[in-house]
Structures are given as C-alpha cells and as structure tokens.
Amino acid sequence: MCGRFVYINIDGIGVRFRLVGGGRDKSELQLAFGDFGPPRSSYNVAPTQTIPVVTNVDGQRRLELMRWGLIPSWWKQVDPPKSSFNARDDRLTGRGMWSGPFRRRRCLVPANGFYEWTGEKGSRRPLFIHRRDGDLFAFAGLFDTWVSPEGSMISSCAIITTSPNSLMEPVHNRMPVILDEEQEAVWLDPLSDRPQDLLRHVQPREWPEFEAYPVSIAVGNVRNNSPELIERVA
Fold first, then answer.
1. Catalytic annotation on 181?
2. Cβ(142)–Cβ(176) under 8 Å?
3. Could you tell me the CA-to-CA distances from 140 to 5, 20, 155, 202, 224 in Å, in that order?
4. CA 26/CA 24 separation, integer angstroms
C-alpha cells in the first residue's frame, strides 16, 4: 500500500526525468505549474490531492498535474470511486477499471520517499522509506481522464502496488512499485502495450539503496506538511 508520500523541490524533476524543456529554469517550471498548482515541495501528499506526474502519450515526456485517486473515463456517478489511489498488480488485466490505463495510459509519479505504518493497532507508528542518497525515484502509475457531469475534464492517477520485498515485508503485505531508470523508459513507451511484457516490470524487486526509519506521528494529520515530518525519531 502507498497512502502518503513525499516529493522535495520540483525543480529537479525536469532534468531527472528528461522532460520536454527539462533544462528550463525555475520561473518556467513555476509557469508550467501555474498559480494554483501543488506546492514545490510536499512532505505529506495524501489521496485526492493534486500531484506532479510524468507522462509520454506522444513520444514526448511531459509534466502534468493530476488528482491522486483514479477516476475511470467511463465513470457515471457524481462522486469519484473510493480508495482508487492504489492499483494492485494482480488486477491490472481483465475487465476491471485498471486494464485500459494499464495498456495505454501509464505514468511515473516522482517521489523522494513515502510513509508506511507499522505496529499493533492502537500503537502504530509511521516509517519513512527513502533512498539513502535522497535522490528522486519514480512509482509506476496509471492515469485516465474523466469528464464530470458539468463538462469539466479531470485527469487522475493511481500508484501500482505489489508484494513486499525484504525491506517492506515486516511492515506491510503490499508495497508501491518503484521502477529503475531502464524500466521507466519501457513503462512510459506508448508503443509498449503487451500486458505480459509490462507485468514483468511491476513484480517485486529488492531495494538495496533504500532505508526505513521511524518518524513523528504528526504525519497522520494531512494538515501537517513540513520538513520535520521526515526527521528520524527515537
């Protein structure tokens, strides 16, 4: 599962993910995000918030803003589906809501780390999981575009989860799929649409470059959003 994550300083996203205009300066990135975009850094990203996402629908990598929590293009109800911020790897094919995006609308969700809770009910504590070098990485994601009853278009996304590796197994029975840079290229390739080939990239793999450590329970309140949230606590 992945229900909270962190991205720090969007100015590095353009170069790291080789976006169109990836070398542009901070003022251009701010223009791309607009006055009502997400903050340049967020230490407590939660479902339904707007997040930066990398897409490649036409052979050009672009940064887009999307709602975290996928709304399928065919959705008929007024209220969006609940708990659609994660997509299980074993439900990506077939007739469900994930199959169309899996074949044709894949994305990367840039992050510097994520939170997961561990411990017994009533005494659960959050852990921060991140690369030891602090660098950006990418969750494997899916996206879709929905037209509301009022006619407005809403782009939304989900993060794929899989079985845990040795780092995450003591913490949770699911973990987000984190791609290496070679996998990122395949995942974003609009010409890659063979489900069996794509499924190979969402299988669990070890994260030797990652670590997990305890952080403040203040993470549990989505209104808290500051660098102190990722500081190690005893």
1. no
2. no
3. 14, 20, 16, 8, 26
4. 7
Q: Which of 64, 107, 116, 169 is catalytic?
A: 116
Cα-Cα-Cα-Cα dihedral of 30, 31, 34, 38, to 10°?
-20
- Torsion angle of the four alpha carbons 52, 21, 139, 213, in this order, in degrees rounded to the nearest 10: -80
Q: Is 65 exposed, middle or buried, given 0-12, 13-18 or 19+ CB atoms closer than 10 A?
A: middle
CA distances from 115 to 19, 124, 218 (A): 27, 12, 12
Q: Let me know if 157 is a catalytic residue.
A: no
Q: Quote the DSSP letter at residue 199.
A: H
Distance CA 24, CA 122 (A): 47
pLDDT in tens, 149-185: 888 899 999 999 999 999 999 999 999 999 999 999 9
- Tell me the pLDDT tens digit for each residue of 87-115: 999 999 988 899 999 999 999 999 999 99
Active-site residue (options: 2, 107, 157, 184): 2
Radius of gyration of the chain (CA): 17
What is the spatial distance between Cα 51 and Cα 88, in angstroms, rounded to a whole number? 20
Nearest to 6 by CA among 117, 115, 143, 125: 115
Per the CB < 8 A criterion, the answer to whether 205 and 179 are in contact is no
Pairing of strands 113-118, 5-7: antiparallel
